[in-house]
Amino acid sequence: GNWMIHSIKEWFKAAKPNPSTADVCLQIGCHYEEVAEMSAVLNYDVEYMLAATALEYQMYYSGYLGAALEELSADARVELLDALCDQIITAVGVAYMMGMDIEGALAEVNRSNWSKFEGGVPVFNEHGKIAKGVEYTPPELSDYI
Asked: What percent helix, strand, coil does the chain show, rounded to 5?
């Protein structure tokens, strides 16, 4: 339940205690990247457009994308929050309907994410994205499908 979302949020707080607009853009890019991966698995043709959008946010956030984020109105921020909540809910729904153990899998991915840290400290790549450090162990998800 909420403890898992709290744990995931704590991971982000440990990695980026004071996120900048550039960090927000990078995270949006990562989100698009995951949606692109889902589209690729499902053989849906929008994968290349989503991947390009992900890269645009991840690499070119200093320009108009960052400025647009900084200028979001309160109403737009509410709409964005609603969309993010709906994405979490629909992701859980897809996993449920396909007979997948989303709670167990999410805990395993969270465990793996924490293993990216080295000595409790996050490791970043040249673009500021959290990288896989020497202590990283990938998630093993086969037991959850």
From this structure: 65, 5, 30
